[in-house]
Amino acid sequence: MPAHPHHNHHRARTQDGIDWSSRLAFFRQVDELDAEARRVVARRLVRPLSDRPTVLDVGCGTGGMAVALVEALSARGGGTLVLVDGTPEMLDAATTAARAAATYESDTTTASVRVRPVLADLSTERPVDLAGPAQLVWASNVVHHLPDQRAAVAGLVEAVAPGGWLALAEGGLDGKFLPWDLGVGEPGLSDRLSGARAHWFALMRENIEGAVRLPGGWNTVLADLAMLDVTAFSYLVDHPAPPQQAVRDWAVNQLTWHRDVAGHLLHPSDRETVRRLLDPQDPAYLGLRDDIFLLTAGTVHLGRKP
C-alpha cells in the first residue's frame, strides 16, 4: 500500500531520488483498488480511540487511507484528521478526497470530520510540531524513505498522545500480478522483477544522504521506544484474474515502475520481455491480458504510548 511523500517547474526530487509528483495517477489507482481493505484497517484502528479524536496521517499520498479514516471517524461521531505530506500535488489530492468523504453519512447522522492539510518535509520537521499530540498516528510506507528510520519512528512516537496508538504500515508481502509463465520470455519473470526491485531498494537506501541502517524489525524499534502492547496484523488486497480493466491499468503502471527503477538490473532477455509486455501493439501487452491479477499483503505494526 504504497502511500508516499518538492515541487518546482523542473519537478524537484526528495532525498530518496524519487519524483513523487510523477506518480500521482498510479497512487490514485492504488487507492481505488485498495479501498475496501483500507476501510477494514481504518475501522480497526479507530475503534479503541476516545470520542472525537485527532488522527494524523503521515505521508498521506493521494489520500486513499485518509478517505477510509474519515469514513471510520464519521461513523463514530467525528474528529479531526491531519494530513501530512511533502509533495504539494499529493497533499492537494488527499485533501480533496478526504474532504469529499467528510460528508459521508453514517446510519444515524452526518458526522463532522475536520480535515487539515500540512505540507512538511519529514526528514527535517517533527510531526509533533505539525499536528501533535494525536490519539492515532498512521504512517504507511513512508519511514523507509527517510535517512534514519529509527529516528523517524521516534519522531512519530513523539506525536502520539499518552494512551494513543502508532500504526506503522511497513513490510508485508511483495505484490504479485503476473502469472508464472506469460508465454513470452523465460518463466518466472515475476520473481526476477521482485529480486531486481529489492536490489534497487537496497541501493536507494545506501544513496540517501545520512542513511542509517535499521538493525532489526519494526516491532523491536517500537519496543525500544517504550511503546506498550506492541503487535502487528496483516491485511490482504486480492483482485483475482480475470481482472477488471483497473487492474490491467495498474499492472501496466506497476511494470513500468519496475522497468524505470530496476530494469537495468535485469538480464537483457528479461528487459526484452518487459518491453513486449508494455507495448500496446504487441499481442502480449499487459493491458489486454485476462491472466493479470493483484495479490498483496500489507502489515501494520502497532504500539500504544504509555
From TrEMBL:
Is Transferase among the key words of this record?
yes
GO terms for biological process, alphabetical: methylation
Domain named Methyltransferase type is located at 56-166
Stored Pfam families: Methyltransf_12 (PF08242)
Q: Which UniProt keywords apply?
A: Methyltransferase, Transferase
Q: Which GO terms describe its molecular function?
A: methyltransferase activity
Keyword flag Methyltransferase: yes
Q: Which InterPro entries match?
A: Methyltransf_12 (IPR013217), SAM-dependent_MTases_sf (IPR029063)
Q: Which PANTHER family match?
A: TRANS-ACONITATE 2-METHYLTRANSFERASE (PTHR43861:SF1), TRANS-ACONITATE 2-METHYLTRANSFERASE-RELATED (PTHR43861)
What name has this protein been given in UniProt? Class I SAM-dependent methyltransferase
Biological source species: Saccharothrix lopnurensis
